[in-house]
């Protein structure tokens, strides 16, 4: 049997901010769009997922990949997961990293680390690689209110070419379910990635 071929990989990292549902839904949509998806989930994000959802994901990368594959309906090999210190992962180097990375949700701690080039774990290193290689990097912070420190880090990253896309859904599509609010943000992320979707109509299109 021939191996499945997927569209270019997109890296998705979930960190410890509230809003794990956004990242999990993004993975589902990327799978549906037939992209390969490279996933990293921080230790704090695992705790948030348990707190905010009924999803239970193992921490070990191989088992995590199996769980996400089953949950999203992905094909074999479509989802690859990497551990916190898997320094041989392709995302750790400019020669192997994907052309786009999304940190969703993005904690303010991760925001700070990326803005200052800390690279203390694989998520931070992968974001650093995206910046230095001038590749698409989208950060989805979910925090309120924002301090001057947070805003300064967002400004610094924007000047470096990153996209700051706060998890602040709109209401002009008249959502009646929480899922519609989640899809609003995921649709904006997909727009930034140039990936077609039918989650919500674009402005000016019929509902």
UniProtKB/TrEMBL annotation:
Residues 10-193 form the Flavoprotein domain. Dimethylallyl phosphate binds at residues 172, 188. The keyword Cell cycle does not apply. Keywords: Flavoprotein, FMN, Prenyltransferase, Transferase. It holds the Pfam family Flavoprotein. Its EC number is 2.5.1.129. FMN binds at residues 16-18, 42, 107-110, 142. It catalyses: dimethylallyl phosphate + FMNH2 = prenylated FMNH2 + phosphate. The keyword Lipid biosynthesis does not apply. InterPro entries: Flavin_trans-like, Flavoprotein, UbiX-like. Belongs to the UbiX/PAD1 family. PANTHER family: FLAVIN PRENYLTRANSFERASE, FLAVIN PRENYLTRANSFERASE PAD1, MITOCHONDRIAL. Flavin prenyltransferase that catalyzes the synthesis of the prenylated FMN cofactor (prenyl-FMN) for 4-hydroxy-3-polyprenylbenzoic acid decarboxylase UbiD. The prenyltransferase is metal-independent and links a dimethylallyl moiety from dimethylallyl monophosphate (DMAP) to the flavin N5 and C6 atoms of FMN. This is Flavin prenyltransferase UbiX.
């Amino acid at each position: 049997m021939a191996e499945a071929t997927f569209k270019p990989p997109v890296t998705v990292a979930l960190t410890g901010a509230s809003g794990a549902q956004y990242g999990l839904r993004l993975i589902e949509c990327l799978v549906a769009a037939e992209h390969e998806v490279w996933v990293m989930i921080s230790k704090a994000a695992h705790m948030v997922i348990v707190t905010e959802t009924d999803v239970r994901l193992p921490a070990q990368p191989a088992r995590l990949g199996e769980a996400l594959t089953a949950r999203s309906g992905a094909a074999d090999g479509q989802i690859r997961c990497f551990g916190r210190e898997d320094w041989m992962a392709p995302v750790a180097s400019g020669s192997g990293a994907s052309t786009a990375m999304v940190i969703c949700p993005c904690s303010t701690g991760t925001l700070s680390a990326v803005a200052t080039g800390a690279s203390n774990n694989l998520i931070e290193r992968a974001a650093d690689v995206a910046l230095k290689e001038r590749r698409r990097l989208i950060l989805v912070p979910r925090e309120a209110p924002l301090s001057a420190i947070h805003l300064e880090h967002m400004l610094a990253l924007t000047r470096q070419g990153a996209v700051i896309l706060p998890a602040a859904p709109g209401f002009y599509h008249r959502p009646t379910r929480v899922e519609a609010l989640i899809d609003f943000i995921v649709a904006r992320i997909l727009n930034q990635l140039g990936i077609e979707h039918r989650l919500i109509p674009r402005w000016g299109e019929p509902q």
